[in-house]
Known about the structure:
heterotrimer; A: alpha/beta; FAD/NAD(P)-binding domain; D-Amino Acid Oxidase, Chain A, domain 2; six-stranded mixed beta sheet; four-stranded mixed beta sheet; 11 helices; 19 strands; C: mainly beta; Folate-binding fold; four-stranded antiparallel beta sheet; two-stranded antiparallel ribbon; 39% strand
Amino acid sequence: xxxxxxxxxxxxxxxxxxxxxxxxxxxxxxxxxxxxxxxxxxxxxxxxxxxxxxxxxxxxxxxxxxxxxxxxxxxxxxxxxxxxxxxxxxxxxxxxxxxxxxxxxxxxxxxxxxxxxxxxxxxxxxxxxxxxxxxxxxxxxxxxxxxxxxxxxxxxxxxxxxxxxxxxxxxxxxxxxxxxxxxxxxxxxxxxxxxxxxxxxxxxxxxxxxxxxxxxxxxxxxxxxxxxxxxxxxxxxxxxxxxxxxxxxxxxxxxxxxxxxxxxxxxxxxxxxxxxxxxxxxxxxxxxxxxxxxxxxxxxxxxxxxxxxxxxxxxxxxxxxxxxxxxxxxxxxxxxxxxxxxxxxxxxxxxxxxxxxxxxxxxxxxxxxxxxxxxxxxxxxxxxxxxxxxxxxxxxxxxxxxxxxxxxxxxxxxxxxx
Amino acid sequence: xxxxxxxxxxxxxxxxxxxxxxxxxxxxxxxxxxxxxxxxxxxxxxxxxxxxxxxxxxxxxxxxxxxxxxxxxxxxxxxxxxxxxxxxxxxxxxxxxxxxxxxxxxxxxxxxxxxxxxxxxxxxxxxxxxxxxxxxxxxxxxxxxxxxxxxxxxxxxxxxxxxxxxxxxxxxxxxxxxxxxxxxxxxxxxxxxxxxxxxxxxxxxxxxxxxxxxxxxxxxxxxxxxxxxxxxxxxxxxxxxxxxxxxxxxxxxxxxxxxxxxxxxxxxxxxxxxxxxxxxxxxxxxxxxxxxxxxxxxxxxxxxxxxxxxxxxxxxxxxxxxxxxxxxxxxxxxxxxxxxxxxxxxxxxxxxxxxxxxxxxxxxxxxxxxxxxxxxxxxxxxxxxxxxxxxxxxxxxxxxxxxxxxxxxxxxxxxxxxxxxxxxxxxxxxxxxxxxxxxxxxxxxxxxxxxxxxxxxxxxxxxxxxxxxxxxxxxxxxxxxxxxxxxxxxxxxxxxxxxxxxxxxxxxxxxxxxxxxxxxxxxxxxxxxxxxxxxxxxxxxxxxxxxxxxxxxxxxxxxxxxxxxxxxxxxxxxxxxxxxxxxxxxxxxxxxxxxxxxxxxxxxxxxxxxxxxxxxxxxxxxxxxxxxxxxxxxxxxxxxxxxxxxxxxxxxxxxxxxxxxxxxxxxxxxxxxxxxxxxxxxxxxxxxxxxxxxxxxxxxxxxxxxxxxxxxxxxxxxxxxxxxxxxxxxxxxxxxxxxxxxxxxxxxxxxxxxxxxxxxxxxxxxxxxxxxxxxxxxxxxxxxxxxxxxxxxxxxxxxxxxxxxxxxxxxxxxxxxxxxxxxxxxxxxxxxxxxxxxxxxxxxxxxxxxxxxxxxxxxxxxxxxxxxxxxxxxxxxxxxxxxxxxxxxxxxxxxxxxxxxxxxxxxxxxxxxxxxxxxxxxxxxxxxxxxxxxxxxxxxxxxxxxxxxxxxxxxxxxxxxxxxxxxxxxxx
Amino acid sequence: xxxxxxxxxxxxxxxxxxxxxxxxxxxxxxxxxxxxxxxxxxxxxxxxxxxxxxxxxxxxxxxxxxxxxxxxxxxxxxxxxxxxx
Lengths: 418, 972, 85
């Protein structure tokens, strides 16, 4: 595998780029593996990579129904941050954020992790108090957070409507400067390439059709490309968690919903930071290509269709213009939708399942992208050791029956509430 | 000048002056910016995204990738506007974009010189060095990326949404759409006909024909007029952008051109939501370019675009033309060029040795190697003829690469595609909703065939919708011009340098980029798209996707359909975010509700605070007072004399029926049923997971009638919840619930003087005892007086019809102020409740706390049976070590609200400050907090730590009730 | 956007309705703790036909049972919630 570097890029440029091989192989599945990861999204590929690198497993496969990175990895708004309120989630996402900070170099693949800051706007004094509380919780747990005055916010994002008459007047903000965005596809491709280098078989167009379970233990997996023997499986199939769990004979506190987002046509730089709001569910950033990326609330009903309702996009448009009036004459270029694993407390599920040897990483609602490295790492740990790491221990399936839910927004036990 | 002496559908008597890059030009009414520029000899219109290659108009329509301009000024500035889809208006100011310092000399073109080092996806392979280094690299990448300048001004004009319903929606007013809509209108169906152009006619505008003996355009206009006359709606300049579930189609109607000031209504664009019983998609087809080196030079354009310039706009774009024939349609272009006076040679690229009988020279067995030229346009084309190299001089190249049906809406609606190898196109099949593709959109060629198909489809639709069988004879047609030799289409082939053979013009994706991506393993069509950015430009791949797909299939050595397509998603063409939002932007994006006493408050010029949908007075400062000073004065008045506040936004439910008490005990987790008539009590409700949902009071107004109040912000949720319990869980109960939140206003009067002040209002002349109720009257308006105290003082909530509340407010306000009391707002209310240790939804009831956490476990009704009772028994909700509500007393500086509670500097937080206030009369900072094992930690000293505000201060854990712990004051 | 035929109001746009939960996840107030918790937190989450509880929130307020396909969004039946659903 030729290393990626400016030098090699230059040398290959002289040579018509004939020397670059495939970023990952396309092997036929073997008859058995030490561990199998279901789902070739960022999370699954990361899990395979860390299984090989940290856990030292040798024979690992990633099974992907379609093409890698084609699920929610390729259908999000690419925001990366760890500035949540609840300490368990802070810890999980901060662990992930630290991995992000070295990821391009670790993978030798530029995932364009850009720490241009993730800013929450506050629109009232009580918003600002809640933001301060969040910031204080973060800082006391060693995570960066800064309150910003309206003046500071205005300097950072000059196009924000800072007038008193704005529907959502800006009273200030809370910024995590280490937050930002990353290039979503590159994360999947980078992990795939790095995992491939470590011998992981990435098998696309391979759908899981069943499990071989003997005495409550995983013995193998059945796929559209043949049966595979393995005693350790990690499932990381956001959007289809319920489907895969059903194949293994259990149900989950997860319902599949849908989240839409859209980008504008590309323009020269106008928004430098990721903008979110404490009061309205709308998030705005600008990609390196110049497209303004907009997202909002999910569609609030179960669906696998990846087709949303138009009024959700229209609502986001109105909210975005309310914050940044100049967005009005930008044009929506592309819209898309992803099937989200809505959990019943808004937090992910990473841990054991009722089937021994089968482990789950799912239930990320619509916030999983930021956790890609961390979730992969933790799933790898859990698969390899058979037990959760300290960091994902609070996120087990058993927390629901136990009453130990981790409800970041405090909105209760309905998937559509998060 | 290249305007022909005659012809075209432009108004030669109406010149329009416009600016492009600072120069003033003249065009004609009916011109697009692109046609007017071509008429003025301006061929260079844009620069590509990555290599800044000089570009002219490739097309004459919405598929245009190259000729993008920024147009308009101030709040009407629109970047990335297609010059081919922008009709001239007086005063149009357009600028080229993505170039510096100018369009002709663009330093960005240096990227083209180093293009060998920056192929597709190059950025994934370099710029290492950590996040800080990347931010630096990225800064320059961002500056280089983007196309037009961003808008910077707030919107100048209005947008709106409108809904419509019809029997038949027809998208596209070309021959097929017109014919279908006409039939439907004649049969009496409700028809909406939508056309993205500003006139009906579609291909008739570039390919004249005689229909029913009439000149084609006249036929089209007559058809449009007849549809209108029959009551149909014809929306011009309107694009169907999305086909959603259950046959909802969204349309964007452009009332004015980009950058143009609207008419008197101020309306710029309108977004339609149309629900049609059937939709005919007569969306036509888009022509594909051909692949050869230099195919992106200005003056290398689509063959149909050349015909459009001549026929529609009366512009001859070149004098020495080469027509590259990948299909028969090329012959019409050559024919027309010849008639318009250009020198023209047709190069037949398909497998044949002779094409007899054409009025222009034809070379056969031709392979195109490359086009050469510069920013001024193409100058020559190198070809091989029968294997021999030749160079032909030219100033115009027309590419006829075959047609791709516009299947976007069909696919959005859940349809499928069928590959036709013969002409290299996907055709729509298997509609899943009520959509029907028709005409060129269905792969049908020929005007007569198209009209006949439209006629038949419309007839079938009308029959299924129950309309009378319409006239079934399709119109007669005579087409003009050469029809070509009838050869099959051209399989994709290119013979020149892959590095300069462009597939996606705007994003500069070349054949060699596709080859590279494939070599590197990006072989799924989605990987290819994402890795190379093929089809992701503002033209959304309208001219490039099929070409890229075909090349991928060739590399894969698989048939094109096996490679698959990318997903088609809204919008068909880009749509302004303003149109999406419609009127619901700014103040209308979340309308505010007004409290019934809004005007009374406004007259006092209070500080307002948003609360749920409402703004409520936060305080009524006197001149010179700060918020804090005002709130403290108001709170002190309430503690010492009397205060009056508006609590109208409280959720209120009037619950009646013999089972009302039983019903309430299903909803409320406390005892309710045994309340005596005329009495009330505090209550709370759980969610289904056993955690606290809301709290409030419940009152027994009569034997079978109750009033339930709960938090303002949770009112909608509570209404839905009550409905759920009533209708789904307890349908057998005889009870009805009326949500009277906005029917009843409520004011609270609190303080030592409150009882004497309100007593005269009561019918029996006496204020009710604490948690009792009384009836009063003021000026004939009945009053319900509830003796409930949130402030901790003797207090009364007085409920009455909302539209009568102003009188009561004035009456009480006068008395309160006369008694040296104060009107108080939310801030004083908050100070008062904190001092009293009362919890609030959104504060201590934060969606994570149980009744036990807030010291209310003893209020839970034994035996359960209420909503959430089961889940509350889960072990972690009963286990020790949970957070519990505590009072906090400052031992140093003021306690910051929201700060963390630590045992020592640097220790992990063990809780947080939920609300901070002060002792109203004595002074001194106090707070409420949630603290792990809090109840057992009274007397302990902790740190309240707020790093974001730079404050850390010691606090003592104390009881939650700071004021009147015995409750003597509110009992009066 | 779905078109839902409310038995009271006729065809109305989805925007007027709120999805609540699958019909079989309604938890009786007297359900045993284990059943209540199990029903609350475990869902079949089918890819296919499902009976769901919706509410005509911005219309007549009725609770409706929808027989709906979660992948194609077809709605095969809409019924008023009967007693004891």
